[in-house]
């Protein structure tokens, strides 16, 4: 871990969506810290609450139907969830950058790449037109786009998927933010381009010291990137640990299942784990363990009470009534 002072402190975040079918409890009391310069991985299957959690911090969810009903997100001494919208706009793109999953739908199709990068600089800085253009060229060069000056005149549809994602990264870096949130930025790209984008993020983080929150459903992607990992399920954090500790010694059955579903070259012939069942319905806020219906270790307490996220080892927390190390109920259950 690169630093010990939290620059972002999230406490008891709850986000709901009100639909015709009922209220969806998408995020159900999420708390975590992000340290300066840290690379934090957030993993879990689709619908676990990863993206909604991070978009809620910048109030990017559509409201309505979405609503942040509880919580606090302290950043640079201010609560992002209660900031006036005008003040929040200075944080978005200025102090916290966001890389969206699909750059083609996130970039404006009728505006040039150069205009969109320089627009952010115009909003958040006092640079002259000439310096904004020079900064835009510098950013495109930084993310490995050849012919950067010429590319300023390109439109999003004229670029490949990998190039568009590089542009999104350049835009997120435009104002030298303290935090970058990357929402599954390599999902729609082929494996070769994925590797290039990951390498760019790693290099930029080392050069600029920016803290990164990387949202993904793929534990393999963050194995060589993250300092620490949050595992989410049913709108909750079910495990939190340094990346090496999490991979070597998972303390939640869901994490064990995720890790067991990844093919490994050093374990040829081993059968992959299949997590049986379906993700939980979030029309009701979980009052018991949300993973209980799919858990191979489930017992009575799991169906009666939702376990809190508690530290079981130094820096390693889990929300589980089952002791994975000793294969018995935890806390004298």
Would you give an account of this structure?
The chain contains 12 helices and 14 strands. It has helices at 50-57, 85-91, 103-106, 113-124, 129-142, 148-151, 161-173, 191-208, 219-222, 243-248, 253-260, 300-304; strands at 6-19, 22-35, 39-43, 66-75, 78-79, 96-99, 179-183, 211-216, 228-233, 236-242, 310-313, 316-318, 322-323, 328-329. It has an 8-stranded mixed beta sheet with strand order 6-7-8-3-9-10-12-11, with helices on both faces. A 4-stranded antiparallel beta sheet has the order 2-1-4-5, with helices on one face. A hairpin with a 4-residue loop joins strand 13 and strand 14 (328-329). Helix 4 (113-124) packs across helix 5 (129-142), helix 5 crosses helix 7 (161-173) and helix 7 runs parallel beside helix 8. The chain is globular. The model has no long low-confidence stretch (mean pLDDT 88).
- Rg from C-alpha positions? 21 Å
Structural class computed from helices and strand pairing: alpha/beta
Number of helices: 12
Strand content: 25-35%
In the sheet with the most strands, the strands line up as 6-7-8-3-9-10-12-11
The residue-averaged pLDDT reads 88
Main beta sheet, described?
8 strands, mixed
| Helix percentage range | 25-40%
Regions with little confidence, pLDDT below 50 for 5+ residues: none
| Order of helix and strand elements from N to C terminus | EEEHEEHEHHHHHEHEHEEHHHEEEE
């Amino acid at each position: 871990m690169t630093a010990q002072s939290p620059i972002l402190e999230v406490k008891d975040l709850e986000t709901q969506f009100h639909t015709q079918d009922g209220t969806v409890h998408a995020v159900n009391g999420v708390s975590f810290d992000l340290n300066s310069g840290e690379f934090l991985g957030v993993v879990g299957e689709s619908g676990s609450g990863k993206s909604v959690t991070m978009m809620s911090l910048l109030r990017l969810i559509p409201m309505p139907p979405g609503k942040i009903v509880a919580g606090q997100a302290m950043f640079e001494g201010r609560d992002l969830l209660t900031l006036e919208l005008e003040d929040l706009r200075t944080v978005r793109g200025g102090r916290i950058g966001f890389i969206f999953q699909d750059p083609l739908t996130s970039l404006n199709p009728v505006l040039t790449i150069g205009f969109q990068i320089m627009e952010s600089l115009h909003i958040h800085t006092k640079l002259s037109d000439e310096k904004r253009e020079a900064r835009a060229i510098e950013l495109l060069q930084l993310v490995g786009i050849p012919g950067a000056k010429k590319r300023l005149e390109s439109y999003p549809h004229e670029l490949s998927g990998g190039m568009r994602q590089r542009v999104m990264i350049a835009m997120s870096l435009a104002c030298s933010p303290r935090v970058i949130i990357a929402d599954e930025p390599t999902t729609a790209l082929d494996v070769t381009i994925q590797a290039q984008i990951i390498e760019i993020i790693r290099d930029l983080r080392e050069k600029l010291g920016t803290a990164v929150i990387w949202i993904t459903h793929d534990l393999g992607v963050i194995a060589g990137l993250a300092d620490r990992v949050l595992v989410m399920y049913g709108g909750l954090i079910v495990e939190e640990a340094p990346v090496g500790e999490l991979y070597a010694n998972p303390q939640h059955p869901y994490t064990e299942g995720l890790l067991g579903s990844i093919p490994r070259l050093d374990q040829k012939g081993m059968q992959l784990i299949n997590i049986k069942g379906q993700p939980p319905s979030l029309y009701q806020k979980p009052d018991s363990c949300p993973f209980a219906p799919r858990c191979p270790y489930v017992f009575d307490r799991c169906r009666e009470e939702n376990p809190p996220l508690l530290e079981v080892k130094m820096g390693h927390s889990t929300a589980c009534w089952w002791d994975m190390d000793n294969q018995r109920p935890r806390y004298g259950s």
